[in-house]
Amino acid sequence: MAIQAVLVPDIGSFKDVEIIEVLVNVGDTIAVEDSLITIESDKSSMEIPSPVAGVIKELKVKVGDRISEGSLVVMMEVGDAVAGAAVAPQAPPSQPSPARGEGAKIASEPKSVVAPVLSPSPLAGEGLGKGGSSPDFSKAYATPSVRKFARELGADLNKVKGSGRKGRITQDDVKAYIKDVMSFGGMPSAAASGNTLGVAPMPDIDFSQWGAIETVPLSRINKLTGEFLHRNWVHIPHVTQFDQADITDLEAFRKQLNEENAKSGMKITPLVFIMKAVVAGLKAYPRFNSSLDAKGENLIRKSYYNIGVAVDTPDGLVVPVFRDVDKKSIMQLSEELKEMSAKARDKKLKPADMQGGCFSISSLGGIGGTKFTPIVNAPEVAILGVSKSDMQPIWNGKEFAPRLMLPLSLSYDHRVIDGADGARFTTYLAKMLGDIRRLLV
Ligand code: CAO
């Protein structure tokens, strides 16, 4: 093994061009032709591939550096056979490498075995770098490797929003697009679908003119959730039905269960009973367990009962889905709730853990508040908000009696659910939670 310097090869007329992407890290194992960096002139971007295989030992460049032929890119540990003088690709290819052959024209015949590959910059003319088999990504501004990556995943690059310079689409943008589509049950979010809803943009305000400020970037979850909620808020005609359930008896039973299970450390919160009551409600009112099809012409009714539960994490809101809640006991659900919340907070949830939900619950009961208006988690058609229970004087026909009342806030898609059914659903939930023996009937 030896350490080898890898230099920029002959890149034709490109001189003193800016590095817009460093595609490798120290420690990465690189095969011949793996791209090391992307450079960009005002006409096109170009990936510089590695002429040798090995392990990256040192990066000699960073984003923003300007390079020309012969600039040092990385120090690489290579096998003895290829060790020697600094390596830059040597002979011109007869044609661009098929693995990278996006149909891009090489500006002025770079002399390298592993040819740098061009793609058009948004400022370049239409003719440059028309890449293209099917699907046609020719108008998308992305490097060849990102185009290849998108094709492999079946992502439509024309729908991916670029976050790179001048709107260039990066590999991370493609990943975010795929994740977005997967997370939201196959429905792309507003940004992913390019739908801006025609509203005027928010003004760009310099707040520092009024005092000290700090700019804190939103987390990825914040951004995705924000887009998704915004889309649902605008597309779905929401109505929120408020109600309350008398959970005095349920609470006594829950406390008793917790005492009995104190040694095991298992804690049962009201939420698992609420999940069970919701499933009973979905069975009694199947429209709540449905989704509108894409054209909005048919209801897809589901015969399974998967419930999403909103979990508050330091990075933002996530909604893991609890499958087949109808088939699970209170103890099983409590265990699963504990596991899933921990997974969510440790950022270990996979996209599959957040898919396939029928109905969501957002419980702020452990925090406080009396009621709120949750946003429907499309393609579901309703969501239940739960606030903190409190003791209230309730008239029992003869006198006011102290009862523990649980506030319920049910938001629903008014295209699918009428107001009368909304009120029936919360009344039914209140009945189930008021006497949990009914959940067995
Ligand atoms: N009324 C009164 N007390 C309640 C309650 C309610 N409705 N719900 C829970 N509590 C109590 C619990 O019994 C527990 O009390 P003890 O510690 O004395 O036993 C305490 O509040 C904390 O409960 P918890 O929040 O840890 O557990 P949970 O099962 O109720 O909820 C989870 C789990 C993951 C949903 C919750 O931790 C969470 O993240 N909630 C926030 C969800 C959110 O952000 N929603 C807003 C999304 S925007 O629509």
From TrEMBL:
Q: Which GO terms describe its molecular function?
A: dihydrolipoyllysine-residue acetyltransferase activity; lipoic acid binding
Q: Which CDD domains match?
A: lipoyl_domain (cd06849)
What cofactor is needed? Answer: (R)-lipoate
Q: Name one GO biological process term.
A: pyruvate decarboxylation to acetyl-CoA
For this protein, what reaction is catalysed?
Answer: N(6)-[(R)-dihydrolipoyl]-L-lysyl-[protein] + acetyl-CoA = N(6)-[(R)-S(8)-acetyldihydrolipoyl]-L-lysyl-[protein] + CoA
User: How are cofactors bound according to the entry's free-text note?
Assistant: Binds 1 lipoyl cofactor covalently.
Q: Which UniProt keywords apply?
A: Acyltransferase, Lipoyl, Plasmid, Repeat, Transferase
Q: Where is this region: Disordered?
A: 87-106
Q: What is its EC number?
A: 2.3.1.12
What GO terms fall under cellular component here?
cytoplasm; pyruvate dehydrogenase complex
Domain Lipoyl-binding, first and last residues per copy: 3-77
The UniProt record lists the Peripheral subunit-binding (PSBD) domain at 141-178
According to the record's subunit comment, the protein's assembly and interactions are:
Forms a 24-polypeptide structural core with octahedral symmetry.
* Family that this chain belongs to: Belongs to the 2-oxoacid dehydrogenase family.
Its biological purpose:
The pyruvate dehydrogenase complex catalyzes the overall conversion of pyruvate to acetyl-CoA and CO(2). It contains multiple copies of three enzymatic components: pyruvate dehydrogenase (E1), dihydrolipoamide acetyltransferase (E2) and lipoamide dehydrogenase (E3).
Q: By what name is this protein known? A: Acetyltransferase component of pyruvate dehydrogenase complex
